[in-house]
Design goal:
Layout: H1 2-5, E1 10-12, H2 14-22, E2 28-33, H3 42-56, E3 60-65, H4 87-101, E4 110-114, H5 116-119, H6 124-131, H7 136-139, H8 143-150, H9 157-173, E5 177-181, H10 185-197, E6 204-208, H11 234-242, H12 249-255, H13 261-267, H14 272-288, H15 290-305, E7 315-317, E8 326-327, H16 328-335, H17 341-349, E9 353-355, E10 358-359, E11 366-367, E12 374-378, E13 382-387
Parallel strand pairs: 2-3, 2-5, 3-4, 5-6, 7-13
Antiparallel strand pairs: 1-6, 8-11, 9-10, 9-12, 12-13
Helix pairs in contact: 9-10, 11-14, 11-15, 14-15
Length: about 400
């Protein structure tokens, strides 16, 4: 019991949870995710860790893919209506979600369900029956709905249906426990209301704190571009973790690595930079293994502590580019480390690119065969070499 409630923000039904655990009951634990974007972030990792804890204790854990609700979009925390996704986009995202989720939770202990299993069979009359169970006044108790209403921002009727649909998922799954972030609290409570109305025991609601993003202010979200994703390369993951502010490190250790308060207090005795490098190495290790974690730390220390170029950087042949002459921009685009020509030109003109250790602001700078090799550095993490 103590482990299950450690690190949580809020629990509704704590006495019920204690009673069910004392009876040695195997609980149905639900975590719903809407595949609205292709990448999971470290913010998702917080609730996945809690789901895995229930797995480790032998409970029945259900990962619900909201492939039907994703076409609506969860309005939680939003100041405007979410864009509508096509079923094809949702399905593609769902496939990548499972691959990523299983980096944290045990696939052999996870039951995968999709809420399209029941929603696509429902008639309009069925939805009206559910809609009658909640009033507009009750919906406007949600902070984000209330804020948008008072600011005359549009709220779609469909968005009002979303909490009801999420709550109905709990009815269909007969969930004993539902997990979510603090921004999901209202929706999770709706599940309790509907379960009671359908004659089921009310689910225990457990919310987890929202992870602060790289900006040190707002919750981690791809919408805010302050995120670290499961799909980032080991180098990008390490570098992004190193960019977080010192005052959020404690939350990262507690929520992502599940450190105890005593262990965190011991870490505070170290220099913050050493602690942050240990955090980054530990998280990279969790996704890529200990060898990669150690290598990324070594490379980082080589670059930043000693201002040296890391070993074994990628090499590209000038001849293979099949152009004459080859410019700095040509080589950067050829490396595929950059998203577009526009990004390359912007980085060079801003002075963020070095050639052989010297800042080069001319993207038309010619790379000559008889002057190879050239070592090109962009920013703090991208290094590659051009050879003849």
């Amino acid at each position: 019991m103590d482990k299950l409630v450690d690190g949580i923000d809020t629990i509704v039904g704590k006495e019920s949870l204690a009673e069910r655990l004392s009876q040695k009951k195997i609980l149905k634990v639900k975590l719903g995710i809407d595949p609205t974007r292709p990448d999971l972030t470290f913010g998702h990792m917080v609730v996945f860790n809690k789901l895995r804890q229930f797995q480790d204790l032998g409970h029945e854990t259900i990962l619900l893919i909201g492939d039907h609700t994703a076409t609506i979009g969860d309005p939680s925390g939003r100041s405007s209506t979410r864009p509508v996704l096509t079923p094809q986009e949702v399905e593609q995202n769902a496939k990548t979600y499972l691959d990523q989720a299983f980096k944290i939770i045990d696939p052999k202990k996870t039951i995968i369900r999709r809420n399209s299993e029941w929603f696509r069979k429902m008639t309009f009359d069925d939805m009206l029956i559910i809609a009658r169970k909640m009033t507009v006044a009750r919906m406007l108790e949600r902070d984000d709905f209330a804020k948008r209403y008072h600011e005359n921002e549009p709220i779609s009727i469909v968005e009002f249906l979303y909490p009801l649909m999420q709550g109905y998922d709990s009815v269909m799954l007969e969930a004993d426990v539902e997990l979510g972030g603090t921004d999901q609290f209202f929706n999770l409570l709706v599940g309790r209301v509907l379960q009671k109305d359908y004659g089921q025991p009310e689910q225990i609601v457990i919310t987890m704190p929202l992870l602060i993003g790289l900006d040190g202010k707002r919750k981690m979200s791809k919408s805010y571009d302050n995120y670290i994703s499961f799909n980032h390369s080991s180098k990008d993951m390490f570098g992004r973790i190193m960019s977080i502010s010192d005052d959020v490190m404690e939350a990262y250790f507690k929520l992502l690595l599940e450190y105890s308060n005593d262990a965190i207090e011991a870490l505070k005795e170290q220099h913050p930079m050493d602690t942050k490098k240990f955090l980054a190495q530990s998280l990279v290790t969790r996704f890529f293994g200990p060898e990669v974690g150690a290598k990324e730390r070594s490379d980082f220390e080589t670059i930043f502590s000693h201002k040296e170029i890391p070993e074994n950087i990628p090499e590209f042949s000038l001849q293979a580019m099949a152009k004459n002459p080859v410019t700095l921009a040509d080589a950067m685009v050829y490396s595929q480390f950059f998203e577009s020509n526009r990004e390359v030109h912007r980085l060079v003109e801003q002075g963020a690119v070095k050639v052989n250790g010297k800042c080069e602001k001319n993207f038309k700078f010619i790379l000559e065969f008889d002057r190879c090799p050239y070592t090109i550095q962009s920013g703090k993490r991208v290094f590659f070499k051009i050879i003849a």
